[in-house]
């Protein structure tokens, strides 16, 4: 062996270079190595396969732009027409009637009013026509690894996605598409929701949120029930405040006062209600000024799907309009 080849300095440099250029150390995204290590340790999945998936995911500026201007940032008078309009109502009535037997069976099985199952997928994806065009991996990599304001949440969703068994996905993970936030299927389920609430209703061994209507509807119903939906309970009722109504600040939609207490504070429900029902109050900017709504447990459950009270009220009003439209169509036959 020559003196050159046996030099300790060169050996050390060679080792350092080999480590620096090792494929194991390379990562396409900040935090990728740690994420892959966690998923591999917790699930036994192949780190090389996980890295290959993430290496092909791309940071998308359009996703960062979209999350900075959510529809829920609008006033109620501007938000409502997006999801509550003649076309969405008519399409919802047609969808309900086309799949009536399945929708009503699942509604009865889970104890959820069937029109709310239809309204959810109506608001989320226009009854399956608009499930999203972003690659789910791109969305969750972008938001989980490049969006500090909500990185913790989206990184966790990315980790769940990488951890899900194949039979919980509508197809190969690198082909899945959805919303800019990484939600999938007609009901726009995030990975943790697929894990926690997804249902294989058609019994084919897969939870398919994109191609199986039984799985889609049952998963939405299961989501509602497991978040506390009250079968047959009210959702929201318009209230009329008097001139001495007490100003109320509400942090979320969780019921915290009785209807009787809200009445005592000057908010009279515009239809008869059990005075002992737990309730809350929402004040929204409508087309004709302030609107006040007494809301209940089922309204709160809808906000577990999407935290915005605007979203929950849009789902409620769309559901009511669909139910009314179905009854009217039935009467005309």
From TrEMBL:
Swiss-Prot/TrEMBL keywords: Signal
Domain of life: Bacteria
Keyword Transmembrane helix among UniProt keywords: no
Matches recorded under Pfam families: SLT_2
Residues in Transglycosylase SLT domain copies: 33-320
Active site: 124
Transmembrane segments: none
GO molecular function annotation: peptidoglycan lytic transglycosylase activity
InterPro entries listed in its UniProt record: Lysozyme-like_dom_sf, Lytic_transglycosylase_MltB, MltB-like, SLT_2
Signal peptide, first to last residue: 1-26
Any one Gene Ontology BP term: peptidoglycan catabolic process
Protein name: Lytic murein transglycosylase B
Organism: Dyella tabacisoli
Lineage, opening ranks: Bacteria, Pseudomonadati, Pseudomonadota, Gammaproteobacteria, Lysobacterales
Name of the encoding gene: mltB
């Amino acid at each position: 062996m020559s003196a050159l080849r046996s030099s300790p300095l060169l050996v050390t440099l060679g080792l350092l270079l080999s480590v620096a250029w090792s494929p194991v150390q390379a990562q396409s995204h900040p935090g990728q190595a740690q994420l892959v290590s966690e998923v591999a340790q917790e699930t036994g999945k192949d780190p090389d396969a996980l890295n290959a998936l993430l290496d092909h995911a791309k940071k998308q500026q359009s996703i960062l732009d979209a999350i900075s201007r959510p529809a829920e940032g609008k006033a109620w008078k501007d938000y409502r027409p997006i999801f509550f309009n003649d076309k969405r109502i008519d399409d919802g009535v047609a969808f309900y009637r086309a799949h009536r037997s399945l929708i009503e069976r699942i509604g009865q099985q889970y104890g959820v009013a069937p029109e709310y199952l239809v309204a959810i997928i109506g608001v989320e994806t226009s009854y399956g026509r608009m499930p999203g065009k972003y690659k789910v991996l791109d969305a969750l990599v972008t938001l989980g690894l490049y969006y500090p304001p909500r990185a913790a949440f989206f990184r966790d969703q990315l980790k769940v996605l990488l951890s899900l068994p194949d039979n919980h996905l509508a197809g190969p993970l690198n082909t899945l598409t959805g919303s800019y936030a990484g939600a999938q299927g007609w009901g726009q389920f995030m990975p943790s929701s697929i894990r926690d609430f997804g249902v294989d209703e058609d019994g084919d061994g897969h939870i398919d949120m994109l191609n199986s209507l039984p799985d889609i509807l049952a998963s939405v119903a299961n989501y509602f029930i497991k978040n506390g939906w009250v079968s047959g309970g009210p959702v929201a009722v318009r209230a009329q405040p008097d001139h001495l109504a007490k100003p109320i600040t509400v942090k979320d939609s969780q019921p915290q006062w009785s209807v009787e207490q809200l009445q005592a504070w000057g908010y009279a429900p515009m239809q008869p209600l059990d005075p002992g029902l737990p309730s809350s109050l929402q004040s929204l900017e409508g087309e004709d000024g302030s609107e006040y709504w007494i809301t209940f447990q089922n309204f709160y459950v809808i906000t577990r799907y999407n935290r915005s009270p605007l979203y929950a009220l849009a789902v409620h009003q769309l559901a009511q309009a669909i139910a009314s439209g179905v009854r009217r169509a039935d009467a005309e036959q």
